[in-house]
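Need tokens for this chain, all 693 residues.
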Amino acid sequence: METLVNSGFSTVTCRFMQSHPTNGQHFRACQVRCMRNNENANSSISEPSRMELEGHHNTEMLQESLHSSVSEQSDLKHNDIWKLFRDAQQNILYLNKQRLAAVEELNKTQKEKRVLMGRIEQLELGTQATIAKGALPKSDKLSICSELLLRIDSMVLTGMISTAEASDLRRVVMDNKVIVGDVFSHIEQKEDAELLAELRPWSDKSKRNAFHIVHICTEMAPVAEVGPLASYVTGLSCALQRKGNLAEVILPKYASLNLKQVKGLRKIGAEFYSFFNGHWHANRIWNGVVDGIGITLIEPVSHSALFNRERIYGYPDDFERFTYFSRASLDYMVKSGKQPDVLHIHNWQTAIIGPLFWDIFVNQGLGSTRLLFTCHGFDSQCLEQPDKLAICGLDPSRLHRSDRLQDNIKKHLINILKGGVVYSNKVVVMSSIQSKSRIIHSLSHGLESTLSIHKHKLLIAPYGFDATAWDPLKDKFLAARYSAEDIKGKAICKVALMQHLGLPGLPSTAVVGCICPEVLEVDLEKLKSAVWLASRKGAQFIFMGASKIPTLTTALASFQKELKDKNVRFINKLDEALSHLIFAGSDIMLCPSFHDPVLQVPLKAMKYGAAPVTLTFNNDGLSSVEHDFESTGSSQYISSVFANMTLSQALDQFKNDQTQWNLKMKDAMSKEFSWDAECYDVHIAAYTSVRNL
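Here are the structure tokens for all 693 residues:
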């Protein structure tokens, strides 16, 4: 900029820097001019004029002013910079604190994760160790409930609680099965007193919404097996518990028991007494769990020889043995305070419980309990002298009557099986092929009049099979799994079976399977006819069975040599894994009978997509016999689809009409024949009926 002091003066120019600190721009050069008076123009130059002095003085002042302004602006800028620096430092410190907090939180989370993963690993190792030892997984709530109920029995026998309180606690356990299973997951680590303290607060919440069933029987799979009773008791009990009910089993403590199958087996310290042969005798109690079912084993102290034998049945004193057990079971129930909805007894061995219950025990705390009697056949009835009833406390004169235990044919004897029919509220006859009418009039073995009088109590129930072990969709033994909805895996299993046994041919070749636990004389002749017929039809034949009779084993080996047929295989042993593959790989399964309560071959065959055909003679080969299928839905289905099919017809249909054959097999596979199906429904109806009496 220019500053004009006086227009008539000579000028003196000086420059200074103008600063603009307010907007942050750089300094800019400025020019100032000082004007000298003309009248002093001739004056010596060496002498400074007043104006010059003043101009110089003003310049110095201006420069000082400018320097002061610059300094002030510089100070302001410096202050602003420091303020920004301090603010930046504070922000950095805050961010560092946040970063440190985040790192600390991350470390904490990672530490918690490591701890959690360690716990999960420990739990997995514990579960694997438990399974490796063969113990029941603690997630099995029904098993825990069964163990807890047995502990309640122990509390009663040791005098810790009364029978009335025991009954209330059992109802608490029954009605809170899921919660109880979680709360008492470590029951084995708790003493009875601790369990009792935890159970008592729940007593007021008890509600009745499930059946409590106690089986008193002489067999139970897999600990004591002879006939169909064993698999029936276990299969039905498991089905009951899967549907929310509670089932318990009381057995004699045989010397031949397979105790390795009993989990958590323990002896209760206290003993109880039962009446036998005019005296009271001590008994020990053992309890444990089998397949999630609580079992109680009764061991006589002074009469240990009654059950300390190689076999379960077949002794001259069987009546005394099982009468002792029956009476002891009822005495134990009273002593332990058990009050089940239904007391379920089986066959003649525990049929004596009927008159014992109503004549002696109904007024000893069992007034609300009812009786259901299961009979697996009327051919074994147990006839005895009437006076033998006195050994268990019964009055022979009251019971030796035609409407009670007197035998219908041999009037001087009593019939123990008849007593079970007469004194039970319901009677279930186990049969997969017979109707009530035919059982009463043709298969009663002298009890026709008794069954006719009590026919309103009779129910017919079919056998079932264990669907947890026999299901092609879950079967661990199969090369491929399959179902009615997706049957492709069956063809893979068929090829695997042929390769395993070295059978030639194509997958389109019909495969006929036959599994028998033991070969009998008549079965061998039927078997030969079936093999010849299958060979003529171009089919492959697989037989699995075993015989303890040397002559039959020799005859079977000779027949195999005689055949010289590369399409036939005989397997002289029972192999579990191979039996599953035979069911899956066969198109047809030969059955000794449709009434097969032990192996249940017809039911398993249909589940695995194979046609069941019975082994019987007729003029042109093999055919089925005529069956009376009036009773059950499963029987009616078998009758309408497979009962009248011969082996020859089955082979022809398989060869000539594959489409229709596959539709028939898929339909059979879709049916439900396990213990959880019709057998369960019949028994639940029976339990409901007797509880409402």
